[in-house]
Design a protein that fits this description.
Layout lengths: L19 H7 L8 E3 L6 H6 L3 E6 L2 H12 L4 H17 L4 H12 L2 H10 L26 H20 L1 E6 L2 H6 L6 E4 L16 H12 L4 E10 L5 H6 L4 E10 L7 E10 L35
Helix pairs in contact: 3-6, 4-7, 5-6
The protein binds S-adenosylmethionine.
Length: 311
């Protein structure tokens, strides 16, 4: 694997950027079908694993509209630069008030450039929508947010994913995970990364035990190999769904830090789990120094245990 990670222009909660090298070791390389992500989020997993053909789906239409606009050429590095220079200038001149003008406009029109602007200028990079499906995250309070260096960074991220989408066969679809999983055929591989229960819930991320159960039923009925990201344990408790739904499957684990908020003490260590319906140790992937372990499901592993090293 090329270890220079592709960082996508859109950020979302639960983004798997730091877990890519580990995921890489657990993903089958020998499939001829479609790489299917029912919960694409930022798209960082596909944009780094680079399957030939992919179905990237999410129930959040703004994510899908954004990537469809890149795929059609309607949104490009140069249109993003032009837009961010103009709107970033207004943000600075208004001492930040312009953020709320864009937020209101976005909630009326759903414009993809406005979505990018909000995603990169909101508080802590959160993506959160209220019941009326309105984006409701406040401003990060930095009127100079869109410096020319920051704009160039975002433009490069857009150009990078546009270059990938141009040469690959990727379809972006707004649909719920049931429909996406039911489209799978033998030879495909599904990577499911649902919202984690009780974390970051909002209009597009409501997730509870019944969703967990329905997702398990869908995945267990899928006609192909799958990988499911979930959590194994944190310092306080372990994920009972692993024992309930996944005890007959392969479970690999790795410690991971999620950043919620800006402060150091908001970095919560979590043991991340990857459930697969195949044995990852039989894959031909080079393990690249990463260890995977099979853990007793109901015995949480203390963060920092050998074999669960942070990346
Ligand atoms: C944990 S994030 C995925 C993160 C992604 N793998 C990444 O690394 O950026 C979960 C995603 O699932 C989407 N989602 C939530 N409920 C859904 C549903 N019922 N069907 C499809 N997508 C859903 C959310 O909009 C969100 O983008």
């Amino acid at each position: 694997m090329n270890h220079r990670l592709t960082v996508p222009p859109i950020k979302c909660q639960g983004i798997k950027t730091k877990l890519i090298p580990w995921l890489w070791t657990l993903v089958p390389q020998d499939f001829n079908g479609t790489w299917i992500e029912p919960f694409m989020g930022s798209g960082v997993v596909a944009f780094n694993l680079l399957p030939r053909r992919a179905l990237l789906a999410d129930s959040n239409p703004h994510i899908i509209n954004f990537y469809q606009a890149i795929a059609s050429g309607q949104l490009s590095g140069s249109s993003v630069r032009h837009y961010l220079v103009r709107e970033g200038g207004k943000l600075l001149d208004s001492q930040g008030e312009h953020y709320y003008v864009i937020r209101e406009r976005f909630n009326q029109t759903g414009d993809s450039l406005d979505f990018l602007f909000l995603n990169r200028a909101c508080f802590n990079g959160l993506m959160r929508f209220n019941r009326k499906k309105e984006f409701n995250v406040p401003f990060c309070r930095r009127p100079s947010r869109f410096s020319s260096a920051y704009i160039t960074k975002i433009v490069n991220q857009v150009n990078r994913v546009a270059a990938i989408i141009r040469v690959k066969d990727y379809q972006f679809s707004c649909m719920t995970y049931e429909t996406t999983i039911r489209s799978a055929v033998p030879g495909d591989v599904i990577y499911a990364d649902p919202p984690y229960i009780s974390r970051h819930n909002d209009y597009y991320n409501g997730w509870d035990d019944s969703d967990e159960q329905r997702l398990a039923t869908e995945l267990q009925g899928a006609p192909c190999r799958f990988l499911l990201s979930t959590w194994h344990s944190n310092s306080f408790r372990s994920n009972s769904c692993l024992g309930m739904f996944w005890s007959q499957y392969h479970i690999s684990t790795r410690e991971h830090f999620y950043h919620v908020g800006a402060r150091e003490n908001n970095r919560h260590p979590m043991v991340e789990a990857l459930v697969t319906n195949y044995d990852p140790s039989e894959l031909s992937t080079e393990l690249d120094g990463c260890e995977t372990t099979q853990l007793g499901l109901l015995h949480p592993v203390a963060p920092g245990t050998p074999g669960n090293n942070p990346l």
